[in-house]
Amino acid sequence: RRFFFFLSLFSHASSSLLSHTSSLPLRVYSVVSQLMVYVFDDHYLALTLAITATQQINFFIIAAACKFDKVTDFAYGTNFIILAIVTLVVGGAYSVRQIVVSSFVIAWGTRLAVYLFYRIIVIGKDNRFDDKRDSWVRFGLFWLLQLITVWVVFLPLSYLNSSSVDAELNWRDILGFTLWGIGFLIETIADQQKFSFKRDEKNSGHWCDFGLWQFSRHPNYLGEILCWWGIWSSVSSVLLTASDYIVTILSPIFITLLLLFVSGIPLLERSADQRYGHLDAYKQYKAKTSPLFLLPASVYICLPMWVKKTLLCEFPIYQSDPRRESISGQDKLIDSPSTETTTHGRSQQITHAS
Predict the structure, then answer these.
(1) Which range among 21-25, 72-76, 133-137 has the greatest average pLDDT?
(2) How far is CA 345 from the centre of its chain?
(3) What distance lies between CA 147 and its chain's CA centroid?
(4) How far apart are the C-alpha atoms of 307 and 293, rounded to whole Å?
(5) What whole-number distance in Å separates Cα of residue 331 and Cα of residue 344?
(6) What's the sign of the alpha-carbon dihedral 209, 211, 214, 216?
(7) Would you call 165 helix, strand, or coil by DSSP?
(8) Which of 91, 329, 349, 350 is the S-S candidate for 264 at Cβ 3.0 to 4.6 Å?
(9) Going along 20-155, which residue ranges are E strands?
(10) What is the rounded distance in angstroms from the CA atom of residue 52 to the CA atom of residue 152?
């Protein structure tokens, strides 16, 4: 808490000095600085926002100036690592729950950053930015979304590491640890399987239907979603008020909606439809394979459509008519490396992430 004591002193000192000036911007700064200390930083929200904004803006400047994609996903994954370490150290409580959940986020961020950085080095460029690199505005909007994603998704750990509550581990922690473990395993295996599949030249021009990908069209996104719901489940053990629950649950809801409806599955489904939608074999694969959950093809294909749409995320936006796509657009996609998004970076799917 000493950190915020000195921050509070700084806020008071700056307010006293600025009270003698008529400059509107400086007066605004005075008010905002006090709000950051007394409102947001009860849960390290201003601290995590400041760190995230600093990192994402600096990496954006580098990426925009050099017009390359090597640091985008790396900035996403490492941002979570830095936030987890800083909030854990600043809090100083080091409860078992804080150490375990912080370690989960560090492990998730490390794997994602290393994997995506290695992948972009091998691939050479990220096709997501082909229409954005030359425009600081469009490129900047992507980085702004990434900044917001990191900050919102990290909310549960911000609350956990700022809490002085040291409740005993309970069923919510066990459920959370289990969900995170399963999700991390699924995401790791799925990413590795698809990367290996794409690197094999004999699979050129074919969609990935190997390993977990024969049970789900996007198993890596399922893994990522499970990870963050697992983290929230454990963090919920120390939440005290209804507002705490409402704010922190934004994290898993945000990443779920982002991957399901914005920059995750919709983009990859559209890309795959453009590249393979004219092939009967691909149509059969898509018809018998769940978009998210891991299900045997023999089970999924027999389910009624209303079950698929309401319970298994087979949303209409995942269905597109490849005949409506321009021939030039198809040629561009066929000739270019595989398009993959991350959520982050992966949403990045970021992403993470794919």
Answers:
(1) 72-76
(2) 7
(3) 10
(4) 13
(5) 27
(6) negative
(7) coil
(8) 349
(9) none
(10) 10
CB of 15 closer than 8 Å to CB of 33: yes
DSSP string, 214-251: GTBS-HHHHHHHHHHHHHHHHHGGG--SHHHHHHHTHH
Amino acid at 134: D
The answer to whether the beta carbons of residues 93 and 166 sit under 8 Å apart is: yes
SS3 for 181?
helix
How far is 75 from 33, CA to CA, in rounded Å? 27
Distance (Å, whole) CA 208 – CA 302: 22
Q: How far apart are CA 268 and CA 343, in angstroms?
A: 12
Q: What is the pLDDT of residues 304-339, one digit of tens each?
A: 999 999 999 999 999 876 554 433 344 443 344 444
Describe the crossing of helices 45-66 and 72-91 by its angle, rounded to 10 degrees.
Answer: 160
Q: How confident is the model at residue 279 (pLDDT cuts 50, 70, 90)?
A: very high
Cα 102–107–109 angle (5° rounding)?
95
How distant, in Å, are the alpha carbons of 72, 96, 330 from that of 67?
A: 11, 43, 25
State the residue for tokens 């830095």. 82
Supply the pLDDT for residue 353. Answer: 39
